[in-house]
Amino acid sequence: MNLNFIHERIERFKKSPRYDSLRRAWYRFSRSPLNLVGLAIAISSIIIALFAPWIAPYPEHAEFYINFDEAYQPPSLKHPFGTDEYGRDILSRVFFGFRFSLMMAGVVLSLVVPPGVLLGLIAGYYRGTWIEHVIMRIADMFIAVPPLVLALAICSVLTPSVFNAMMAVSLMWWPWYTRLVYNVASSIRNEYFVLAAEVIGASTAHILFKEILPNCLGAILTKVTLDVGWVILIGAGLSFVGLGAQPPTPDLGTMVAEGGKYLPTYWWISIFPGLAISYIILGFNLLGDGVRDIFAGEER
Questions:
Q1: Contacts for 229 with CB less than 8 Å, ≥ 6 apart
Q2: What pTM, to 2 d.p., does this model score?
Q3: Cβ neighbour number for residue 13 with a 10 Å cutoff
Q4: Model confidence at 37, in pLDDT bands (50, 70, 90)?
Q5: What is the largest CA-CA distance in the chain?
């Protein structure tokens, strides 16, 4: 009985317009092999981050662990990425580094996207008023300063930690979403469907979230996907200069900085964490291009 019910639901879904929309979106996405590569890299990165304690060869090496007898071991079957100065398995620490990097990206984007989008919607809808001028001038003040420089300035006056690094990156990232949504919202502010909603007496909240926001989702989702890599890169940069995660936290940026002291003799200590950062960033950048292709096809 349950199997028949599930089968009926699946068949009904296949006949719905939503199924056709998903098929067309997948077709536009899968036309480029690079999009599929980006999707595979992003999925593998998330899997590694989620299941790091179970797939890492030596999960106990992620935090406090010292075994000087195995220090500076080059890559081998026992330690594919070698060991560091404390005898910790670098592959295991890289797996846990994926978790910290994606956690930072997730927390930062969760904090900045809602307020950034909301302020962009308000500024775009009230274009030409004092509300727009106040919001956009404040956003322009933040955008005028390079993101990494602003994050370094904020972290330098705070105690170096993962939490403070997240707060610093979040504080300087929201204006980019405000500017993006403002550009889209202001361009459709005087479209007929928005004017029609105003004529029939729709509330401002209805117009912002039901009429304007759906037309901004393509740009927002594309930027969110691309920004995962940028947030990870800036977070790794803060950790590299000692203003982010602190040892022995298995942060990729911290591992690169610690291994830099031993280059070129023990090259694997910093090279493999650096390659892991590049792997994540490459994957989400390619995935972001694929998301852009999906929404670009819908616009055409």
A1: 280, 281, 282, 283, 284, 285, 288
A2: 0.87
A3: 11
A4: very high
A5: 77
